[in-house]
Each structure stands twice: as C-alpha cells, then as structure tokens.
Give the backbone structure.
Amino acid sequence: MTAPAPAGTTRTIELRDGLTLTVQEFGENTDGTGVLMLHGGAGPRSMAGFAAGMSQHAYVVVPTHPGFDGTPRPGRTDTVADLATAYLDLLDELDLRGVMVAGSSVGGWIAAEMALRDNRGRIACLTLLGSTGIAPEPPVQLANPAEIGPARTGELAFHNPDLRIDPAALSAEQLAAMAANQRTLAIYAGDPFCHDPKLRGLDQPRRIAWAPAWKRLAAPSRARSSVIRRRRVRSLLPSGRHADEPSLVAATAGPGYDTVTGLGSPTAGVDGAWAAMK
C-alpha cells in the first residue's frame, strides 16, 4: 500500500538579487537533489497533486511565479527569461544538484530556458508537460485562455473530464483570482503569445518522450524536436495539458531521458518515475 502523500509547507525565499519567491516544499531535502515543478497559467495548485505524489520519493519545490495568486511581482521581472534566471538562483540558494525540472505549459517553457542557461550543471533532466515556448506547426495555433474562457480552456487542458473546472461553481473571488493570474501570464508570455520565435538550442545529446501536447497544441512535435536537437523521440498517448496522468510519465521516464509530454491527477505512477530517475 502506498503511504499517504505528505502535505506541502509554504515559505518565502529571498534570492541574491533581492527577488522574493513564494515556494511550496514537499518532503525533505536529505541528499541535495530533488524536483523543481513549474506551474502554468492555472497557478501552482495545478501541480500540487503531482508534487505531493512525487514527494514520497524526493524533495519537491513548487515556486509561485511572481504575480500569480496575489504574490508581488517587481517591475523588472516580466519575461520568461527572468523567471528562468530566478529559478536557477533558487537552485543555488537551496544548493540542489541533479535536479529534475518539471514544467507545465509556460512552466515547460521556463524549464527549457533554464536548461539553456544552466552553466553550473544543476539540472539533470527535463519533464515538459504540454509545454509552450515553441510555435506549433500551422494550422495549429496557441489558444489564449483569456480569450477562450475557462470552460473551453478546461476542455482543452484536461484529458480526464472529471478534473475540469466548472466555471459556474466558482465564486466571484475565485473568478477574479483566475483573471488576475491570466493578466500576469500575459505579461510573461508576451507578444506573440506563449512562444518565442527565436527559441532554439539545447544541443546536448538526450532522448525525448513526446505526447501530443494539449488539444490546442496537437502537432508541435517536430517544432519541439527541431529545437531540442540531437535527441530520439518517443510518442505517448493520451493527450491532456496538466499532470493528470503521471503514470504515463512514469512509463516513459528513464535514465538519460528528458520527458516531453502532454499530460497533466495526481499521484498514480510516480513511484516508477522517480525510481527511474535515481
């Protein structure tokens, strides 16, 4: 029987440049390594189930991107590159090495940018969950949640319909918080929305497990492969946006693998995922 997943604790950490981050920590840092999980536009709660399950095997850190969920955002922190630099500084602050960085949606974009800048070799592998950052191949387009609304976003984002949010069940306060998060996402995602036409690199020879990223990102696999070059690609199904099927992540994770998926519930299958990464 699997032990209950430990609850997370929240604290603030001030980085060397003065930026203050709000982070949730799951498990204990006992061996100087762990998992950094980076949320997308849905906020840090979208990673909570996956983080809690993984924390049965590893120390897990889930930062809140400055400006999300009412946290402060300095004016100088307004790009994905800024967040990538901040989270590398966070790994330094926590003195973590051999880190698995898992990013959902824009969090996957941040993770890829971190890998490009990781000159201290702290990152061991990437798990990109329905990652943005790279434009999909026409005619597929990146859908903006602020434009299509929460109901359609839920349909596109979750493979499991039971996990989709019912906007009618949300309070006015919850709807306002979601709208504020989308405004913050727009600051980081920039124009063009949620991708950088110049993003390229990641030449390290690694292997990729790919799942069609989100129904709205149904065909960007060749684009992703062209940027993360010199790697072998696997295919994964089904396709959802958030970490609602981590057992499929577990099935593809392994030594030397980066994992690029379209998955997004919560804890099933993380035993194998972390064991494979050890």
Remarks:
- The domain at 9-277 is CATH 3.40.50.1820 (Rossmann fold).
- The chain has one domain: 9-277.
- The two ends are 21 Å apart (CA to CA).
- The chain has a mean pLDDT of 74.
